[in-house]
UniProtKB/TrEMBL annotation:
The species this protein was found in: Streptomyces genisteinicus
GO molecular function: diacylglycerol O-acyltransferase activity; trehalose O-mycolyltransferase activity
Protein name: Acyl-CoA:diacylglycerol acyltransferase
KW Signal (keyword) present: yes
InterPro entries: AB_hydrolase_fold (IPR029058), Esterase-like (IPR000801), Mycobacterial_A85_antigen (IPR050583), TAT_signal (IPR006311)
Entry keyword ATP-binding: no
EC number annotated for this UniProt entry: 2.3.1.122, 2.3.1.20
């Protein structure tokens, strides 16, 4: 089985002295990929850099009031997009944790080959060093409203600039690790936006084990994203926000969606990040599956050997399921 193990060395350096909970940070930035442009589009975004020479992979960097720096986005187009004249369904694909991961992560891993021949647009945005696909309670480094950027700005921009199906059956959301949490969160909070949701080694429970994942989010965001501030508030949480973001508390929001879950069962005993990450991921996904099952909500799940990494075979299987669920191009 082909696999990719994301390194977390940079997170370890950035979060030295914190617990292993800070391992789910995310998001370095890519160097400029083309001549700078300044284009307004009416969605709160302004293009400041772009690369459109590649026939499939488009690159954009935006200025936005939601984020205090210029986040990047890759848009992977299907084969034949430029000549077909057809509209296509869209997958929003979110990267996971660590300062070594960002919107080019899945390109490095082989997303072009995985999607070859599939009638699907794939949008891969920045998500911050430890943004947790959230608007944080506070920030000491300027705006870091990733939820606003992704949902209120980027999604309508994609629909306005590419031939998409701008509807429920035209969109899926998926991600790895922190990105898997983001996918589950967005699919629940924005029910009418996504017909399919997938979480590859992503946390699904914020309150179990004394709220370990919530502490994890707070510690990592304080260390490498928010300059000491946190996603959910500390020492007291914003309880309403935790509940709104917690997949196991939003179970009815997954009804009539395709739900696809992956977790590892045997973390690497040599890699302590792996052990903490995937042990909690597995427990949380089992809890989530339990509430889905009790509610009679169908879902596909896979528990497989190994720790915290993307499993290429299951990602390809997920892509096939996404294409089958969404409206046809």
């Amino acid at each position: 089985m082909s696999t990719h193990h994301p390194t977390r060395r940079n997170v370890m350096r950035a979060a030295a002295g914190l617990t292993a909970a800070s391992a789910l940070g995310t998001g370095g930035v890519l160097a400029s990929a083309g001549a700078a442009h300044a284009v307004g589009d009416g969605h709160g975004l302004r293009i400041v850099d772009r690369g459109e020479a590649d026939p499939r992979m488009r690159y954009y960097r935006f200025a936005t009031s939601a984020i205090g720096w210029n986040p990047g986005v890759n848009v992977l187009l299907p084969d034949g997009y430029h000549t077909s004249g057809r509209r296509y369904p869209v997958l929003y694909l979110f990267h996971g944790g660590g300062t070594d991961q960002d919107f080019i992560t899945f390109d490095r891993m082989g997303i072009r080959a995985w999607t070859a021949g599939k009638p699907l647009i794939v949008v891969m945005p920045d998500g911050g060093h430890a943004g947790w696909y959230s608007n944080p309670v506070g920030s000491n480094v300027g705006p870091r409203d990733w939820e606003t950027f992704h949902i209120a700005q980027l999604l309508p921009w994609i629909d306005a600039n590419f031939r998409t199906y701008a509807e429920y059956d035209g969109r899926a959301v998926s991600g790895f690790s922190m990105g898997g949490f983001g996918a589950l969160k967005y699919a629940a909070k924005y029910y009418g936006h996504f017909a399919s949701v997938s979480s590859h080694s992503g946390p699904a429970s914020l309150r179990r084990d004394g709220g370990l994942v919530t502490h994890w989010a707070n510690l990592s965001s304080a260390a490498v994203e928010l300059g000491g501030a946190t996603v959910y508030g500390a020492p007291l949480w914003d309880e309403a926000r935790v509940s709104a973001d917690n997949p196991v508390q939003r179970v009815e929001s997954y009804r009539h969606k395709r739900v696809f879950l992956v977790a590892g069962t045997s973390p690497d005993p040599v890699n302590w990040f792996d052990t903490v990450n995937e042990t909690q991921v597995l427990a949380g996904q089992r809890e989530f599956r339990g509430v889905l099952g009790a509610a009679g909500i169908p879902h596909e799940w896979h528990e497989v050997p190994g720790g915290h990494f993307v499993r290429t075979d299951l990602f390809r299987r997920d892509l096939d399921g996404i294409v089958a669920r969404l409206r046809k191009a």
